[in-house]
Amino acid sequence: MGLSNKLIPIFDAKQRDYFAALAGKDPATAKLRRNELIEDALPYIDEAYMDFITALQAGRDRDNFLLDVIELGTTAAVGITKGERPLKSWALLLRLFEAGGGQPI
Prior knowledge:
Layout (H helix, E strand, L loop, with lengths): L2 H21 L3 H55 L2 H17 L5
Helix pairs in contact: 1-2, 2-3
């Protein structure tokens, strides 16, 4: 049984308590139940957000590494060919590749 399957019944019960207090015209209890639900949910929301940011950053790091490897390879190829035309062609292709990868031009 996953974590979400364990948490859903707990949060459902708290939500039912909140709506029952609202229906019973008891705003103080409803506010208390709402605050308890938010307080219990925040650590899970924060953890999910941190996981998202970590995964996003890992993807950017990987993409930047690949672009650096391609740029180094292109630089080496231009250095080996020592030609003006290949230099312009490689520079144009590299700029287009960087633009397509979301990197600044």
